[in-house]
Amino acid sequence: MSQEGSVIRGLQHVPTEKERKYDRQLRLWAASGQAALESANVLLVNSGPGTVGIEALKNLVLPGIGKFTIADDAIIQEADLGVNFFLDESCLGKSRALCCAEYLVELNPEVSGNCFPEEDDPFDLEKLTASSEPFTIILYTSSLQKDLVCVLESYAERQKIPILSVHSVGYYSYFTLKLPAHLPVVDTHPDEDATADLRLLDPWPELSTFVSQLTKDIDDQTDHDHGHLPLVATLLHCLEEWKDAHQGNPPLAYSDKLAFRNLVANGARRNNPEGGEENFEEAVAAVMKHVTPFSLPSSLKQIFDYSNSTEISSSDSFWIIAKAVEQFYEKHHQLPLSGGIPDMKAESAVYIKLQSLYKAKARQDASEVMSTVRTLEGGIGVAQAEVELFCKNAKFIKLVQSSVHAPTLTKIVENELLNDELSAVAGPETPLSLISIYLALRASTLVSTDSAEEIVDFVASSIPSLSGNNRLLQLNSHHSELGLGRGMMDYNLLCNNLKCRRELRDRALVTTCRLIPVEVMPAKQTFVCPACHSTLFRDRDTLIADLLPSEDYKAIVLSGLSPGIVLECAERALNFWAYQKTQEICYQQHIYGILTEKHSKLKSQLHQTVTEANAEIARLQTIIDNQAQPKNTSDCAAETKR
Q1: In which element (H, E) is residue 286 found?
Q2: Interatomic CA distance for residues 642 and 632, integer angstroms
Q3: Are 200 and 232 in contact (CB under 8 A)?
Q4: Please, which residues bridge with residue 518 across strands?
Q5: Strand duo 137-141 + 163-169: pairing
Q6: Based on CB atoms within 10 Å of each CB, which residue in 66, 185, 216, 499 is the most buried?
Q7: 49: DSSP letter
Q8: Is 93 within 8 Å of 75 (Cβ atoms)?
Q9: How many CB atoms lie within 10 A of CB 306?
């Protein structure tokens, strides 16, 4: 019978298919976070190459958003195939939004995907936002036309949803997040131990009665029962003893808490095999954290203040619940109980009973708040689950406000340039500012040109202090090389000879020993590899690789080979590129080591120079003092003689 019961209990804890699929993320943001993700309706407005937008959407589809819509009027061309993982030659001439949506949905069939516009329809974002279900977040990629950006920002402001813009060029990117004026965050996922509210200084009658039953005749209890009293019972019992000896006052001052902690520790039995009691040790450790008077969190006080403001919508369920919780606080001088208790040593039956008492009290408080909600304007449509979630997280709810007093861009640049000056003094340990990269990328979306010179001029005219900035010039040179149609994998090889490291644009000599590209073909028959020093003498040990092959060459180079050989060639080619990146990392580490060593030597030389200079100054000062002393002596003698 017991065996059958254990099997049934085991079956009850078998995870569902969904729990197995989303196991890792459920551990990260719990079921409430997953539910919020699954209710999300994302709008992606794509422009330019569109790669970064699709990749971002892919990372939302995999964990399981509810639905998405891709708004993109681009038709797929050859340039798209090299930068977008989801597109192939069969997509040429088709809608990019349609093809990407179809392939994204294949990653997670539980997600619903749509595309806009339909065939032959105009690209009208106002029509899209008016006819679709409300979106919960908007993502758009730069460079999007200003009038379209205005449409999206206007919609986001009306719906009070975040809007995110992202721009990427090669290895560089930036994003801008614009939030509603007031964005409340209810489920902040605090630590479980932090959410525990034991109400030790203000217990309700049912808890007091249960504890008094547990601690009745506590001195006559068996060692087993005494050693399994939960810390809640131990602390409440000791608090009663303390109050009896201190005119009903609880231990609030730090010195009183220390004395109270000693009182709790002295209640433990030492004449047992363990030499103490674990439950009393837990109670002693909990004194400073749980024996504290209630104080309203500043974040919640801010929410209470805003709940009476004219700036917020009176029909928003969050603010209706906030008003109801505020009335609860004014009445009871406490927040609704969260209902959670920490792990503690206790008998299973006692712990379950204690847990049920806290949960029952939490339901009672939430029910009272719900009754208040129903009496407020717009409260009829508020769901019970929303009230319970608010009450459970009341102590940790945050109100994120868009900054109305943000520093100007000029001020930000001044601070970042100051950071660069400090970095120049502090050395390589202090990183340089990235502000020049951001400004260059930002300018590329505002200036209708790919010319590095014009982008630099635009930034310099906007921020004069950046005129002539070297990092800005380097970044824009990189930007102009990339162009709008090239992706992150389109970069030039570098010579693997560490004394060279020049870019190889047209041709490279590739060797079979270590896959080393070098700049020129050696004139002699044999060749020593610059990486591993192997002697290469066979005909196929070296190969001149054309780094800019023609379209005809691309079409025939692998034609006729079996799929297995094609895949093997592709694998080796990818290994080639992996090796090149490893070489680049080694080179950068080598340079870093040289610079670090050089910095250390210069630092030592500077210290030695300063020491020698101080010694020389001291020596010269001594000479000056010695020369001045005889003169002073002769002056004194002359004065005496007179």
Answers
A1: helix 278-290
A2: 16
A3: yes
A4: 509
A5: parallel
A6: 66
A7: T
A8: yes
A9: 16
Q: Is the separation of the CB atoms in 53 and 166 below 8 Å?
A: yes
Residue type, 44: L
Amino acid identity, position 385? A
List the structure tokens of 65: 């958003």
Contacts of 280 by beta carbon, 8 Å cutoff, 6+ apart: 234, 264, 265, 267, 268
Identity (one letter) of the amino acid at 532? C
Instruction: State how far the alpha carbon of 42 is from the alpha carbons of 61, 76, 119, 331, in Å.
Output: 10, 22, 21, 41
- Characterise 208 by phi-psi region: left (phi > 0), alpha (psi -120 to 50), beta (else): alpha
Kindly tell me the sign of the dihedral angle through the C-alpha atoms of 610, 611, 612, 616.
positive
**Euclidean distance between CA atoms 174 and 439, whole angstroms:** 10
Residue 323, token pair as written in the block: 């008003």
Which two three-digit tokens encode residue 403? 């900054």
For helices 205-214 and 231-245, what crossing angle results, to 10°?
Answer: 100
Question: Residues 348, 354, 358, 360: is their CA dihedral positive or negative?
Answer: positive
- Give the bridge partners for 177, in sequence order: 164
CA torsion sign for 574, 579, 585, 588 is negative
Distance of alpha carbon 566 from the chain centroid: 40
**Alpha-carbon distances, residue 379 vs 32, 126, 322, 399, 431 (angstroms):** 23, 31, 11, 21, 53
| Residue in 122, 137, 129, 76 with CA at minimum distance from that of residue 103 | 76
Q: What is the pLDDT of residue 583?
A: 74
Tokens describing residue 489 = 């994998």
Quickly tell me which residue has 């210290």 as its tokens: 607
Which pLDDT score, from 0 to 100, does residue 519 have? 45
Task: Compute how many other C-beta atoms are within 10 angstroms of the C-beta atom of residue 249.
Answer: 11
At 28, which amino acid appears? L
Nearest in space to 441 (alpha carbons), one of 485, 407, 480: 480
Of 558, 577, 576, which is closest to residue 567 (Cα–Cα)?
558
* Chain position carrying tokens 């994003």: 175
The type of residue at 328 is: F
Cα radius of gyration (the chain): 36
Q: ∠ at Cα 475 (471, 477), nearest 5°?
A: 120
324, 421, 426: which is closest to 366 by C-alpha?
A: 324
* DSSP result, 72-132: --PBP-HHHHTT-TT--GGGTTSBHHHHHHHHHHHH-TTSEEEEESPTT----HHHHHHHS
Q: How many CB atoms lie within 10 A of CB 619?
A: 10
The pLDDT value recorded for residue 264 is 94
Which residues, 6 or more positions from 60, have their beta carbon under 8 angstroms from its beta carbon? 40, 42, 68
Question: What is this structure's pTM?
Answer: 0.66
Q: What integer pLDDT is reported at residue 536 of this predicted model?
A: 58
Give the tokens for residue 288.
């400073």
Judge contact between 587 and 501, C-beta under 8 A. yes
Q: Which positions of the chain have pLDDT values less than 70?
A: 1-13, 310, 314, 403-405, 424, 426-430, 448-452, 468, 470-493, 496-506, 511-543, 547-548, 628-642
pLDDT at 395 (0 to 100):
92
Structure token digits, residue 550: 């023609």
